[in-house]
Amino acid sequence: MPSDAMAAEAMLPDWIGRWRESEDELTRPAMRRLAAMLDREDVALASGAAVPPHWTAVLFDDAAPQGRLGPDGHPLKGDFLPPVPLPRRMLGGRRLTYHAPPRIGDLLRRRSEITAIAPKTGKSGRLVFVTLRHSVTGPEGLVSVEEQDIAYREAAAPGQKPAAPEAAGPARAADWTDAFAPDPVLLFRYSALTFNGHRIHYDADYARGEEGYPALVVNGGLTTLMLLEAACRRADGRPLLRYAARTVRPLFCGRAATLNGAGGALWAADAAGALALTIEAAFVA
Q: How far apart are CA 285 and CA 241, in angstroms?
């Protein structure tokens, strides 16, 4: 590791405990667009109406000025997120609990804090995991608390291909399975809703040439959203209470996948049956 990268990594613990606050509004236009993307015509969008709690995932975008974006389309590190000396960024996992229903028109405030920074070594080389804690409050008090793990990885070597999918899938059989066929329009609409500029989700040349992926990468947040939506359709109207999601490997645009569930265990898999994302979900009794 170059000496400047070693020095930067040695300073990372100093960022633990840093925090910031931001505000966002749960607007009718944003929820209307999300409902359209999800083919949901059954959700009331009047002012004051409650919406599914996991729909708040499209709020609180970074909205960094154009001049403070990195070559990958993400905001430059070193502002709030620490200057991790690794270029590739992915969402590793999240754990989220809901406390009150969000409603159309609510002004929400989020406090974000860096709670942990953990360098590791994996199959793809060096990794650094940054854990954030997001607490969201609204007019009725606490809405949700989330822990989010961001994984930073080394750059892809020239000509490097992603590791072959592991054959092993979940040990248990699915109670239900939905086909999932992510296409460029779906990826575009989700990135537009979340104001996510990460180029691996819409710039195929960049995804292939710079980061070594075979195609556009499906947003982990999008896969999570679609999997939760599939589970909610089978929850007999019970609201989602909490979930814990872990990213195993990415899904790719234009490649068939499945959304699966058995009780509170949910998972997305690629066409070969390899796990891409797992969720443990709980609904209000």
A: 9
Residues constituting the chain:
285
**How far, in Å, CA of 249 to CA of 277, rounded?**
7
Helix (H, G, I), strand (E, B) or coil at 13: helix
CA distances from 41 to 35, 36, 54, 102 (A): 7, 8, 17, 18
Q: How many CA atoms lie within 13 A of 93 on its CB side?
A: 13
Cα 275 from Cα 32, distance rounded (Å): 31
Per-residue model confidence as pLDDT tens digits over 202-216 = 999 999 999 899 999
pLDDT in tens, 118-149: 998 867 678 999 999 999 999 999 999 999 99
Distance of CA 198 to the CA centre of its chain: 12
d(CA 99, CA 227): 21
